[in-house]
From TrEMBL:
Any one of the GO CC terms: plasma membrane
Name recorded for this polypeptide: ABC transporter permease
Any one Pfam family match given in the protein's UniProt record, by short name: MacB_PCD
One GO MF term attached to the UniProt entry: transmembrane transporter activity
């Protein structure tokens, strides 16, 4: 237990040579600072990479049809085929593990030919036909109005939801948008909603230049019949879509008379697998951050241990007097350990505070200047602070252990003889 006299003794010992103490403390300060900043930067990279998914449901696959590479049941190789709308209901019936299965169709692109007209203004935008469930798979912020609904699907209403940059291209400032009409490839659609993708970075420009209309309306207006450009399939959280996809592909191959061993007929992108690979990479980076930070911190701890050994040697006569006056070996050892522990904790927590300031500054700059590609919100959790504190406590005790043992091995008579 600390008391006033003990605190005074510790303070006097640590301030006896201020410059030496500061240099020693700097090693621990710098080690903890590097450790926290490395973990914060790793989290920033992870957050930035996660943003690249645009909050897309990670337990999902995107799949589309491609040309067959094998002849099968009298049908030739290199045969082109398309997914059909009835594939969606068939999948939901066959696989109860599927939470959402959304068809998508696409027309044009925001860098393609002009396909949208409003009054005297024209523009090139990506036109998508979607089902209402799609907003659950790729979340969107509805800034005004609404998203497409199932009543729109059933009635094949000519309505649309537009991205924020469509407004910039087709509307004057402060002009009302909801309830207005735009012409897409000669067909008029009423605007019922405005959306923005949350935290979008990689394809932010394309997202903002997107127009979404009901899937059934899209197919009717643009002569797509019941064809699907691609579909997005999301499994319930209790199931892994990566484990389900082979069964799903096998089912789709049967429905479209594709050879079971034809690996190129169905294209796909596994969001779940991509996300797992990315998460694994950043787990490795976190381990590397801990390892590098621990090595730097170790050099600081060794410095504290060396300084404490020097301090014990300089105070040999003092220790001898205290032993002669009745101080027990444990009292001598505990003081040395406490001095080491306090020096380590103070310098280490100062490093934590300093690194927190740098992290705040990085986030301030990012907020003021906009997002950086593949980097967002560098931060560390409270668990990192607790881990850092635990490391400091253990390190402080270890740093003082050798000097403390050295001090208790002195015989009072021998210590008093030293000049």
């Amino acid at each position: 237990m600390f008391n006033k006299d003990r605190w005074n003794e510790i303070l006097e010992a640590l301030t006896a040579n201020k410059f030496r103490t500061l240099l020693t403390a700097f090693g621990v300060f710098w080690g903890i600072t590097i450790l926290v900043l490395l973990l914060a930067l790793t989290n920033g990279l992870k957050n930035g990479a996660t943003v690249e998914f645009n909050d897309f449901a990670t337990n999902s696959i995107l799949t589309w049809s491609q040309g067959t590479s094998m002849a099968y049941k009298g049908l030739p190789r290199r045969r082109r085929f398309s997914y059909k709308l009835n594939d969606i209901e068939a999948l939901k019936t066959e696989f109860p593990e599927i939470k959402y299965a959304s068809p998508r169709n696409k027309l044009g692109g925001y860098r393609g030919e002009n396909n949208v007209i409003r009054g005297t203004k024209i523009g090139a935008f990506g036109i998508y036909g979607d089902y209402p469930d799609y907003i659950n798979q790729e979340p969107m912020d509805i800034l005004e109005g609404r998203f497409v609904s199932y009543s729109d699907i059933e009635a094949k209403r000519k309505v649309c939801v537009i991205g924020i940059d469509v407004i910039t291209g087709l509307y004057d400032k402060d002009e009302p948008v909801i309830g207005s009409y735009i012409e897409i490839n000669g067909v008029n659609f009423m605007v019922v909603g405005i959306f923005k993708k949350p935290n979008s970075q990689g394809d932010a420009e394309e997202d903002a230049n997107t127009i979404i209309i009901p899937f059934t309306t899209f197919n009717q207006a643009f002569n797509q019949g019941d064809r699907i450009y691609y579909m997005v399939i999301t499994a319930y959280d209790a199931y892994d879509i990566t484990e389900l996809k082979e069964s799903i592909f096998g089912f789709l191959k049967v429905r479209h008379t594709v050879h079971p061993n034809d690996m190129s007929a169905l294209g796909h992108r596994d969001q779940s697998l991509d996300f797992k690979k990315m998460s694994g990479l950043f787990q490795i980076l976190s381990v590397v951050g801990y390892f590098v930070g621990a090595l730097i911190l170790l050099s600081g701890i060794i410095g504290i241990s060396n300084i404490m050994l020097i301090s014990v040697k300089e105070r040999t006569k003092e220790i001898g007097v205290r032993r002669a006056l009745g101080a027990t070996p444990w009292e001598i050892k505990s003081q040395i350990l406490q001095e080491s522990l306090i020096l380590t904790i103070i310098s280490g927590m100062t490093g934590v505070a300093f690194s927190a300031g740098i992290i705040w500054l990085m986030n301030y700059v990012l907020n003021e200047n906009g997002p950086v590609q593949n980097f967002a919100n560098p931060s560390v959790g409270l668990q990192v602070v607790f881990i850092a504190f635990s490391i400091l406590v253990v390190s402080g005790l270890l740093a003082g252990l050798i000097p403390a043992n050295s001090a208790t091995k002195m015989k009072p008579v021998d210590a008093l003889r030293i000049e």
